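Hi support team,

I submitted a single chain yesterday and got back a structure, but I'm not sure I'm reading the token output correctly. Could someone confirm the output below corresponds to the sequence I sent? I've pasted both exactly as they appear in my results page.

Thanks,
R.
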Amino acid sequence: SSGINAEYGGAEEEEEEGGEEHHGTMDMMVHQGIETIEFTLGCVSNTASYLRLWALSLAHAELSEVLWSMVMKTGIGMSTNKYLGPIAIVLIFAFWAVLTVAILIVMEGLSAFLHALRLHWVEFQNKFYEGEGLHFAPFSFERMLSGADDD
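Hi R., thanks for writing in. Yes, this is the structure output for that exact sequence:
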């Protein structure tokens, strides 16, 4: 009967022959609460990350609009000369296109880099990283001389 209690969340803890521990109901509830909090935080974190990407695309659109109004509209307004106007518009358009594409490529490259970094560090680490290993011990001459690093 104690095996049934442990299997269905009784208060007793018992080790079977295989070394597997059965925990009580309270342990399972606490574990599920922690899992729920971790899952919720992960969802909020991922949503915030994709909102960041959306905000970056809005920034691209606004930056392109600002460059259009500052460079092209000014250039079109200045080109009233019948002979120099078309040449000025072509040169101003080339300047605008190069400036816009250069800025947006840098921003997109940074966005792609940050997104890949986030995928590796946040999502990959949440799913597979166990954190098992040696505890960090900063370098210390005092510990080395006292022999505390021997263990």
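A quick pointer for reading it: The radius of gyration is 31 Å. Let us know if anything else looks off.

Best,
Support desk
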